[in-house]
């Protein structure tokens, strides 16, 4: 048994002994379970204590292993705790620095404390005393660092600092005596309260101007209660407080005090005048005329003189006649059907233009937009029938290529327009070109295009003789229309097309994409020989220039490799020969072609393209399949049915 195992066994024995006998067993007392009696016969597990194992004497007596110290435990196993003279007990403790006083150590409740009259350090306070007994008075700025003062008005908070046993407020702005400056100097929340600096007498003290008292208002001194000078009046009082009475009045010429104070010269509807203390009329007020030059009745004739007579139902020149001898102004329109209209005076309604019956007007006689289409300028704006904005514009009769052009003209009832174009031209047979050739309103229906009949294990099928192109494609442009595909020679093929778009295009004409089996049969079958390539002849061996593949350069005289897309059927020798004129072009090269999906999203491509090597142009070569989102400049399709 290892030493560690023996020690663990001993600990368990001690614990069992303590529980079974109830004696005061401590970590310092060993083999005390049965009072020290017994034999070392190995039958009692308590005989396995560490001492028995070490010395082998077989004694069960208690063994003291500790010296009594102040810790609340029976270290010397005598049944008493912290008894006798303990280590450090009675030794001097503490300090005599400052107000502190040394004492001696005492054991209290298992802990050594400094007693015996000792005075211990305390937290430092700002009191000129070394409270913490470290030899420094008021160290650490006790009580300092707290906000002090206030921040009302002009005051600003400071910070407390311990200085010579007192906490001083520093760094702030303290209160001062209130001043008359529009500020709260004493920081009591009120501005200029108590009338600071006020109370002195103020004002002129002359005439009507009595003395007042200075009062602090709005940061400045205001004289309150003082008499204020007023404009001098004719009342025998010094109103303006300059020491003179009625000095600004001349009773001989003053219309307000003509001859005497408060004798106003104010003739009715007139401006009075005072000459030699006599009242007269200087001028009539607007709207009145003096007939008899008598200031007693003033300007007695009510007439607002405006000058020359005008058309307004008023006697402008005050000659007792209204709107006389007037020359009509040139305010009536002289354009179109308004030509020759002369303005007429209608009194207070002013001048009016009464236009003839061919001019369109409302109930107030105002010209309004014309409503008749009659080749006349009924609204006098210089344009005939301008309410009919489409008059004179191009119009057509018929549809598509049968369209005949004409112009919009007035109809027979003069309330609208009609197209004067003659009857439409006859149509022509429909061609797959994005044009309504037969003029029936529908594009590219029942068109004549090239299909080739093929046979195989699947039976009889028809396949496009040419790679599909858009209806509006040309030899130079791929076109943009997508309502159906076309199978015609000499056109840029329909490329950059996704599988679902190609499928929808074939479906639009009642066809579908070819199966891989149909496509391969169309490519490999020849009128005389099973083919590896879609060549008109010698179709079992690769011919670099028979079809448009990577080995065919657009200009062999130039360096490097030049590959380009060519129009449908451009390579006259690149066709699968199904006898006579039944030829299926470009199955090898030009563009790769979508065939029917193997499963959803797994869409095979066949035939090779203009930038693919010879191996990829073989009829049986399987390209990597693509998903429904794939499209590329060298990918097209053809239809089967």
Architecture overview:
The protein is mainly β. Among the domains are: 3-64, no CATH class; 306-382, no CATH class; 388-426, no CATH class; 427-641, paralog of FGE (formylglycine-generating enzyme), CATH 3.90.1580. Helices cover 7% and strands 17% of the residues. The protein is built from four helices and 29 strands. It has helices at residues 3-21, 50-55, 499-507, 516-524, and strands at residues 29-30, 63-64, 92-93, 103-108, 111-115, 147-148, 158-163, 166-170, 201-202, 212-217, 220-224, 270-275, 278-284, 288-289, 301-302, 344-345, 351-352, 394-397, 404-410, 417-419, 451-456, 459-464, 512-513, 575-577, 583-585, 592-594, 605-606, 635-637, 639-640. The strands form twelve sheets. It has a three-stranded antiparallel β-sheet, with no helix packed on it.
Question: Care to give the gist of this entry?
Answer:
This protein has helices spanning 3-21, 50-55, 499-507, 516-524, and strands spanning 29-30, 63-64, 92-93, 103-108, 111-115, 147-148, 158-163, 166-170, 201-202, 212-217, 220-224, 270-275, 278-284, 288-289, 301-302, 344-345, 351-352, 394-397, 404-410, 417-419, 451-456, 459-464, 512-513, 575-577, 583-585, 592-594, 605-606, 635-637, 639-640.
Class by SSE composition: mainly beta
Determine the number of helices (DSSP H or I, runs of at least 4 residues). Answer: 4
**Roughly how much helix do the residues carry, as a percent range?**
under 10%
Profile the largest sheet. 3 strands, antiparallel
Strand segment count: 29
Unreliable segments of 5+ consecutive residues: 1-25, 33-61
**What overall geometry do the principal axes of the alpha carbons give?**
flat
CATH C-level class of one domain is Alpha Beta
On the 0 to 100 scale, the average pLDDT is 84
Q: What percent strand?
A: 15-25%
CATH topology of one domain, by name, is: paralog of FGE (formylglycine-generating enzyme)
- The largest beta-sheet arranges its strands as 3-4-5
In the CATH hierarchy, what is the architecture of one domain at level 2? Alpha-Beta Complex
Integer-rounded radius of gyration? 63 Å
Question: Quaternary arrangement of the chains shown?
Answer: single chain
Distance between the termini: 96 Å
């Amino acid at each position: 048994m290892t030493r560690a195992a023996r020690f663990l066994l001993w600990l368990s024995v001690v614990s069992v002994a303590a529980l079974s006998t109830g004696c005061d067993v401590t970590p310092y007392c060993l083999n005390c379970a049965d009072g020290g009696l017994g034999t070392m016969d190995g039958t009692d597990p308590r005989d396995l204590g560490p001492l028995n194992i070490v010395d082998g004497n077989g004694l069960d007596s208690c063994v003291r292993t500790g010296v009594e110290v102040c810790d609340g435990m029976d270290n010397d196993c005598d049944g008493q705790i912290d008894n006798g003279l303990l280590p450090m007990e009675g030794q001097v403790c503490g300090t005599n620095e400052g107000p502190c006083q040394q004492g001696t150590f005492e054991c209290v409740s298992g802990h050594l404390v400094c007693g015996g009259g000792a005075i211990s350090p305390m937290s430092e306070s700002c009191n000129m005393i070394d409270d913490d007994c470290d030899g420094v008075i008021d160290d650490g700025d006790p009580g300092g660092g707290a906000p002090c003062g206030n921040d009302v008005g002009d005051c600003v908070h400071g910070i407390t600092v311990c200085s010579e046993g007192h906490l001083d407020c520093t760094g702030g702005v303290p209160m001062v005596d209130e001043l008359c400056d529009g500020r709260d100097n004493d920081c009591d929340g009120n501005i200029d309260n108590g009338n600071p600096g006020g109370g002195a007498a103020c004002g002129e003290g002359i005439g009507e101007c009595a003395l007042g008292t200075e009062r602090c208002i709005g940061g400045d001194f205001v004289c309150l209660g003082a008499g204020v000078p007023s404009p001098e009046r004719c009342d025998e009082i010094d109103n303006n407080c300059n020491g003179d009475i009625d000095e600004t009045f001349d009773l001989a010429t003053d219309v307000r005090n003509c001859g005497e104070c408060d004798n106003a010269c104010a003739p009715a509807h007139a401006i009075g005048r005072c000459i030699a203390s006599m009242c007269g009329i200087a001028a009539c007020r607007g709207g009145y005329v003096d007939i008899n030059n008598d200031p007693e009745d003033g300007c007695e004739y009510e007439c607002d003189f405006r000058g020359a007579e005008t058309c307004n139902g008023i006697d402008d020149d005050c000659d007792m006649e209204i709107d006389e001898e007037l020359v009509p102004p040139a305010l009536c329109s002289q354009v179109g059907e308004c030509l020759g209209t002369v303005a007429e005076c209608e009194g207070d309604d002013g001048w009016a233009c009464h236009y003839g019956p061919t001019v369109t007007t409302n109930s107030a006689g105002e010209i309004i937009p014309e409503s008749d289409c009659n080749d006349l300028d009924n609204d006098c704006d210089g344009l005939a029938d301008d309410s009919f904005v489409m008059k004179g514009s191009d119009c057509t009769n018929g549809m598509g290529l049968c369209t005949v052009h004409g112009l919009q003209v007035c109809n027979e009832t003069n309330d609208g327009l009609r197209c004067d174009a003659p009857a439409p031209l006859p149509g022509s047979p429909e061609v797959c070109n994005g044009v309504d050739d037969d003029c029936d309103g529908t594009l590219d229906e029942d068109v004549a295009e090239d299909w080739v009949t093929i046979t195989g294990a699947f039976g009889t099928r028809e396949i496009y003789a040419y790679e599909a192109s858009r209806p509006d494609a040309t030899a130079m442009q791929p076109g943009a229309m997508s309502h159906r595909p076309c199978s015609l020679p000499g056109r840029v093929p329909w490329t950059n097309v996704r599988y679902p778009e190609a499928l929808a295009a074939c479906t639009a004409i009642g066809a579908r994409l070819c199966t891989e089996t149909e496509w391969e049969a169309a490519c490999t079958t020849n009128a005389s020989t099973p083919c590896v390539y879609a060549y008109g002849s010698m179709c079992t061996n690769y011919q670099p220039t028979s079809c448009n593949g990577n080995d065919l350069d657009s200009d062999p005289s130039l360096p490097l490799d030049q590959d380009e897309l060519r129009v449908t059927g451009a390579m006259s020798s690149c066709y699968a020969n199904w006898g006579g004129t039944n030829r299926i072009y470009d199955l090898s090269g030009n563009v790769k072609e979508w065939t029917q999906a193997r499963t959803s999203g797994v869409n095979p491509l066949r035939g090779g393209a203009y930038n693919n090597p010879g191996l990829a142009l073989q009829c049986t070569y399987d390209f990597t399949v693509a998903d429904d989102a794939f499209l590329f400049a060298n990918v097209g399709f053809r239809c089967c049915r």
